[in-house]
Structures are given as structure tokens and as C-alpha cells.
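From: lab user (bench 3)
To: helpdesk
Subject: output format question, protein + magnesium ion

Hello, I'm new to running complex predictions and I'm not sure whether the block I got back is the full result or only part of it. Here's what I submitted:
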Amino acid sequence: MRYLILLATLTTLSAQQPPASAGDDTRGYNDTPQIIGQKWKVHDMSRPRPAKVTPGAPVSSVAPPSDAIVLFDGKDLSQWVTQGHGGTTKAPTWKLGDGYMEIAPRTGKLVTKQSFGDCQLHVEWMIPESATGKGQGRGNSGIELMTRYEIQVLESNENLTYADGGAGAIYGVWPPLVNPARPQGQWNVYDIFFEAPHFEGSKVVKPAHITVVFNGVLVQNYKEFLGTTTWRQNGVYEPHPPEQPLSLQDHDQPVRYRNIWIRRVKESN
Ligand code: MG
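Helpdesk reply: Thanks, we reran it on our side. This is the complete output you should expect:
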């Protein structure tokens, strides 16, 4: 009788196991394509998560230098639009707080009116203490260079997800070197140095590259984008003009932003 119960228990347990080819956005996946040039799959569940690092004490917000274009100074959304249907744009309805803006879920991503190529970008972001959920469901947003190349924004102090999907990741390609995320309710800082891709006709001849400093810690060291950021995919570049707008994702979750400024970077003579 005891063996029968054990057998029944084992049968029930095995019935609850996920299928061999599966995953979720807390653990990752094992049925995704290989990342080009790497030994890992996209959002690979066996890829080690980055080591946690405690960043130094936060400094107060870093003021923009004189040649920066201020995209958000805490007061208004005048530099941004929301994309509507059929290529139309409309005034954004993200919420303005005391010196910050907060995603109004399901109102759509924010897109800059101006376009940018090579740039230095400063962004501060916070996951509010009230945010709940897990995996890709807690504090998910993203900084999209040229509306395509994403550096992930996600609650990553306590919240677990696949290695290439946490804050500071080149989403779906490179995890951050380490994880210096601050707790919910505290401001995080990204300083991003981006080189736009170059195309000849439909072919990419120089991929996009990015360097990211996250709360004063290097997390991406001149890493390559393999194409437009896509969930569970990689490796597809779509030709586009040399300058494109910057966008901030709306993933239906409240994330705050403040002090966003950008500098166009030109090669020295
Ligand atoms: Mg995202």
C-alpha cells in the first residue's frame, strides 16, 4: 500500500513537471534559438545570473552638461510623444509626479520628438515600492536606443529572471557583467554610450555597440547588438536611417523616470 501511494505521488509530481521544451520569464527558457556567437540560448534558463554588487551611496541627481539636450527635467513631457495608430502621434499621458514621470500602464511607449544616432545618454529610473509581480512582471520597462536596441529596466534587486533579461542587460543578448540594482523605491542611474549601426543597403556593415554604467558600475563594456531587440529571438537587423528617436517602453507596469539628458557624439577630427 505504501508503495502504491509513493507511486501515485511520483506520477502526480511528474505530471506537474513542465514539458522538456519550455520555461517561463522567472527561470528562463530552453526552447529558444541560440544567441549568435555565444554558447547560450536567448533567455537561457541555464545561463548564470550576474553577481549582485552593492553600489556606492547614491549621489543626488547628476545635472546635464551645457551641450546636452534635456529630454526630461521633471516638469513636462514636451520632448516626447506617444505613438498612435497608423503612424500618428499624440500627446503622452504618462503621469507627472514631483520631479518625475511614471508610466501610465497601457497608454503606450514614450518616443522622443528628436532623433539620435551615436550618443551619450543619462537616465534615472525607479521601481516604486508599490510594484508587485515577478520575473518580467515587476517594474518592466526599457530604454530603446533608436526605438529598437533595448537596455532592460526591471526590478532586479530581489526579483529573479533569466540572466539576459535583468536590469542593465542588452535584452536577450548580454546579461550585465554584475548586478548593481538598488531596491524598489530608490533611484537607479544609467549612463549609456551608444554607437549606431551602419548599413549599406539592406546589410549591416557595422553593428550597434553599447557601453553601460549602472549606478556607477560598468555592466556593458562596448558590447554588440545582434539586431533589433525581440522577445525570444535575436539576430535580425532591419535597416533604418542614421538617426532615430529614443523610446521608453510601457509594459503595463509603473516605472518612474527622471533627469533624462542626451548628447550627440561625433567623431573627433
Ligand atoms: Mg523591457
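A quick orientation on your result: The chain has one domain: 68-264. Let us know if anything else is unclear.
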